[in-house]
Amino acid sequence: MTDRLARQRQRLRARQADRFGRMAEQVHRHNPFYRAKWREAGFESPPTLDDLADLPFTTKEELARDQDENAPWGTNLTFPFERYVRVHRTSGTTGKPLRWLDTPASWQWFLDCWLETYRGAGVEEADRVFVAFGFGPFVGFWTAFEAAQQLGCLAMPAGHLSTEQRLRVMLDDGATTLVATPTYGLRLLEAADGRGLDLAGSSIVRTIHGGEPGAGVAAVKRQLAEGYGAMVFDHAGATEVGAWGHPCGVGERLHVFEEEFVVEWFDRSTGEPLEPVDPTASEAAQPVLGELVLTNLGRIGSPVVRYRTGDVGRLCAAGCSCGRATMYLDGGVLARADDMFIVRGINVYPSAVDALVREAGGVVEYRASVRRRRQMAEVELEVEPEAGMDSGSLRSRLQDLFEERLSLRVPVRIADAGSLPRYELKANRFTFLD
Ligand SMILES: [Zn+2]
Q1: pLDDT one-digit tens code per residue, 28-48
Q2: 3-102+238-339 and 109-234: same fold?
Q3: Which of 29, 321, 346, 353 is packed most tightly, with the most Cβ within 10 A?
Q4: Rounded to the nearest whole angstrom, what is the distance from the C-alpha of residue 253 to the centroid of ligand 1?
Q5: Helix-, strand-, coil-residue percentages of the chain, each rounded to 5
Q6: Contact 195/166 with Cβ under 8 angstroms?
Q7: Domain-by-domain residue ranges, the chain?
Q8: In CATH terms, is domain 3-102+238-339 a member of 3.90.1150.10?
Q9: Cβ contacts of 305 within 8 Å, gap of 6 or more
Q10: Mind listing the pLDDT tens digit for each residue in 407-419?
Q11: What is the CA(258)–ligand 1 centre distance, in A?
């Protein structure tokens, strides 16, 4: 580590310690959920950042149980209920939806974190930002939209518009920046293609993707970049955590916004903490996949401390060539931990399957079913080919790729055009038949 980077890291740590201390002080005094948890762990007075490793983890199941037992809002509230002005809900992809309340200050903190994503993607005041999500209790739309407005951009909602209408608005009103899930970004391309519309030649100069892993998968990113003729950026956040991950423009790197989040790295199989990979080490660093554990420092109204995010990726130590002193995920979030399966002793995630399908090319949409309780996981694919694609050669191309990369024989079924589901928010292409 260079001296400059070491100094930057030191300053960052001091800032985190100060913010953590102030948060813990209020939370220990007024927040019933954390006060009980911390007292049980032996903390009669507010913990400091140095105590973090001795504090218990927080899980989504635990928060859901708390909201069940103390319906409807649960007890993770630092202030009187009257102070809260917004409520959002998680998508419920992994269980029952959580309700999440914000005070004006907590909400502004969330937007400030989102601004890092816009800055990392080079978004400026003159940009027109089209946010292609419906209005709903999903926090992603509101934060992306309001943060764009606060930056001085023209914020363009997509609301209830159909995919075709969205394409028209983007093209007619000169959107420069598209915010969408990677899946929906591809869906818009497919729809434009079917209508003879040219997105690559449009005013869109960049796309920003969140809501699911994907924009960090090189093959998906390439498809988006070519389709829009644009730079493609990744973003990561969660309703209960905040907008924690932002791009910097170097490769497929997603920085953790450490000014506002303390990051820990955790090996799910051993239950032990992990060290981030040092990409500058002389020996080639082995990929270390772990689960991201986050503590947010500015959402005092309803914080998470040592939260097991369920997001899996490869954390690299600070020292990115972009000049930021924060750690980053190489390739972004690779998967949700619950979606993992094992093939010949190797962990496989849906994003690996996704990467191979995109690499094969010529696939409009697909669906996979995975039997993972067998001695060796079995995967079956159903694919919808692009118009004019020879389905026989697509099938053998896919089978060869899976055989070659994952040593996996994957039966491939060809689906009729338009028969597989399309997604706007969280793609749900994987069925796990246990
Ligand atoms: Zn960077």
Answers
A1: 999 999 999 999 999 999 999
A2: yes
A3: 353
A4: 6
A5: 35, 25, 40
A6: no
A7: 3-102+238-339, 109-234, 341-432
A8: no
A9: 27, 34, 55, 58, 295
A10: 788 899 999 998 9
A11: 13
